[in-house]
Write a structure and sequence with these properties.
Blueprint (H helix, E strand, L loop, with lengths): L1 E5 L2 E9 L11 E11 L5 E12 L4 E7 L7 E2 L4 E10 L3 E12 L4 E12 L9
Antiparallel strand pairs: 1-2, 2-3, 3-7, 4-5, 4-6, 4-8, 8-9
Length: 130
């Protein structure tokens, strides 16, 4: 599991390779990832937008920006959490993702929180230690 905390908002990510949706012959690899956002602060916040940077094993980057997550812009009161699962395809057997969410507080302040960089590895990916 991967974890980042920004302004008392914790984001955890659990990636999962999906062999049933992948095909090495067709150079298609697919992962699901489950994200949990927990508000440990004292102010209610709302997730407004997402910004992802997805990098495959060749170093090719793809940026994705959009409103909310999985069609929602969740509001999190102190102590509340929001969990969702999404997915990502890659043309390589490994890669990684990183991102940020734009949040807005009850008082109208906009700020960004980090999504931890997480690795996308399939059983076919060769592990390289740097």
């Amino acid at each position: 599991m991967y974890r980042a905390v920004t302004r008392q908002i914790e984001v955890t990510v659990e990636p999962n390779f999906m062999p049933e949706r992948s095909s090495s012959e067709n150079r298609q690899y697919f992962w699901s990832y489950t994200i949990v956002i927990t508000n440990s602060g004292s102010e209610t916040v709302q997730l407004r937008t997402r910004h992802w940077i997805i990098t495959d094993a060749t170093g090719r980057k793809q940026e994705v920006r959009g409103e909310g997550v999985v069609g929602e812009q969740p509001v999190l009161a102190p102590g509340e959490r929001f969990e969702y699962t999404s997915g990502v395809p890659l043309p390589t057997a490994s890669g990684f993702m990183t991102g940020r969410y734009q949040m807005v507080s009850e008082s109208g302040e906009k700020f960004e929180i980090d999504v931890p960089t997480f690795s996308l590895d399939s059983p076919e990916a060769k592990r390289v230690l740097n």
